[in-house]
Amino acid sequence: MNKLPIYFDYMATTPVDPRVIKVMMNYLGPDGIFGNPASISHSYGRMAAEAVLHARQQIADAIGASSSDIIFTSGATEADNLAILGAATFYQRKGKHLITMSTEHKAVLESVQHLEKDGFSATYLRPDHRGLLDLDVLQQAITPETILISVMHVNNEIGVIQDIEAIGQIARKRGVLFHVDAAQSAGKLPIDLATLPVDLMSFSAHKNYGPKGVGALYIRPKPRIRLTPRVFGGGHEKGLRAGTLATHQIVGMGEAFALSEAIRDKEQAHILKLRHCLWDGISTLPGVHLNGDAKKRIAGNLNVTFKGLDGESLLLALHRLALSSTSACTSAIEQPSYVLKAIGLDDEDAYSSLRISLGRFTTEEDVAEAIILICEQVTRLHTIRPLGIRNDL
Amino acid sequence: MIYNKKIEELFFDTQHAGVLNCAEPLTVCSRISLEKNKCSELYIACDEQGLITQVCFKALGNPYLIVGFEWLCRKIEHTQLDAHPCIDYSMIALELSVPKIHYAAAVLVETNYRQAIKLLKLRSGEKS
Is the minimum CB–CB distance between A390 and chain B shorter than 8 Å? Predict the structure, then answer.
């Protein structure tokens, strides 16, 4: 049991690309550029400030924005909080109604829930069985009081891709701000904020082969979007997010975004091929079902129900693969995945589902070994399972 | 969830997963279904001298349930029927270091075991 499992949890986090690490190392030690980017009275600070500016430009180039549109945060969670809480509190005189989806990341859902405690109202739109938002349903949900819509680009559990172009057009026509959590899409899907009708967009570095602990929020400059800051103490990032900038992490995020954008098409095509291979290898097992739209999904994601098998037993049986069950079974109260429940799975099927996510460093050998292991162990668990129950596989 | 070495060893070496033919004179099956699709079957066969010759199980549930049954089968096979029941859930939990929140699995194993032993003793008594 000492050998590490094969990593298939890229949607939880990604390893920092070695090319990114190499650049980051220049911004740490006494021989590197370690200054505080705000200390521009001396060379140490100025060099750090230049590095931050360069990284900001790298990220802006990757998403079709200007560097001045980017605010650095500690991650996509903080960016989501700043976008939603910041926009809602600033524009609350225009209205106090928000719209989001029931399948959003907790960073969005809990931010909206927090606003509800402060007197805002919210509509949580359910997706269809494929995990996608029905645009007619969105249209009907918008009221004269609606000030913000928040929909994630790619769902972190089932990998489905929302049509943010179309959603943004609806929001724009109705005069409503539109926020997108792009934590799972940056570096994987084309993002061009010069043309996309998106007002606020959150980014994560560690989902895109950058370091953990850093993210960014894009804020549309025209028409200018205003936010109420959440973190105070120094006026950094145009007064929107105080705190000394972590130069090495920001540099890492910049490099990661630039690298991913440069190789995106080729990389995603390769990952998609591996995913198809993996799916072809396991799809004929009894009771196997893919959750979420099969086509409108990110290349590296599979969310699979193994109907009739216990989720904890599945995870242990597949312990040589680093996978994720998005249902929480570690506490006294079991909680099936709210995303899977939202697309129509019952509790049992939700518990029997696993997320398998591939990435940059997944090899053909990894996929081949995963297929063998999954087939072997799922078959074994089926032989242990009593006959005559859940025959509706 | 992190499992101890014993759990992992038994989980990956389920020698007793299977069924027996209950049409045989001294073979019984105890079947229990619970909510949330936890279900188990325990098969026990003995000979005319009361020696338990074969024990098999089928189980749907978490690893503690599967391992609990595998451990039980190994424990009672080739023992005398008269010596049973002698195993309870606390012995199973102690032996396998089952966390308290998963004691229900050990209880299910014990319940199935006691039911099966009772059935087999009845069957054995009828035959004699």
Answer: yes
